[in-house]
Predict the structure of Phosphoribosylglycinamide formyltransferase.
Amino acid sequence: MTPHHTDRLRRRSTSGPLRIGVLVSATGANLRTLLDLGRREPEGFEVCLVASHAERVKALELARGAGVEAWPGDFDACCGTASAACDDPRARQAYRARARAWHDELNTRLADWEGRHGELDLIVLAYHRWIEGDLLDRYAGRMINQHPGDLADLGPGGERLLIGKDPVRLAMALGRRTTRTSCFLVDGTRDGGAVLAMGPEVPVAGRQATVEDAWQQELMQKRQSDPFCLEWTVRAFAAGRLALSGTEHPDGSRAVLVDGVPTPLGGCRLTASSDLRA
């Protein structure tokens, strides 16, 4: 165990609803969860801004339909793709530099927006790009990511097994009988931040580790695990229930406290019957 002081995860605003910004990449299922929460409890939660790395994603249409300011992006045009640079160390380094510059520019734009409209309390990622640089620094302790893999599933060396772009299919290939969504605190690691909560387990039910079966499994997970995980985490953050403790788990991530009580790796492990307000 490595000693650290305890860090409580706090909102910036002291009154009014929790002000949420969302970075999106796809259909907007997680954004819909947040918008629905805001509609049910407008005094407690508000999605204020949505941004994407792409220009044509359904999540942006969903945001505009809800009356939320939505920013398209041009990441690939500016930066290229990671896959195109994967075999050349110099190309990878150049790609990362361009990606960091792109996100630094987004950070500048967010800072300007906050100067005119007020600070955001929390950034939620449902986002398919790695983030480095000023944006991470700006929202340290206030940026969470929805990841479609069980981040408490560790290898023999304590490493997280289900990281990266295709954790559902990987879990199925490893013979796991269930999959689930993890919500973690974003830091400078690759899917290595403190896990705040995990959604209900979703049975694989005989599906095989094929592209089609894995996609069907992930669709079920989006319905049965994602919304529970995200809503509980956002509620807990808004209520000031979350903190990082002074110890580390075997994977090197900070242990999470919920209401001052240490949790195992994976944070709060939810079931379909969990009370999300508790």
In short: The chain has one domain: 7-269. Residues 109 and 115 are 10 Å apart (CA to CA). The chain has a mean pLDDT of 93.
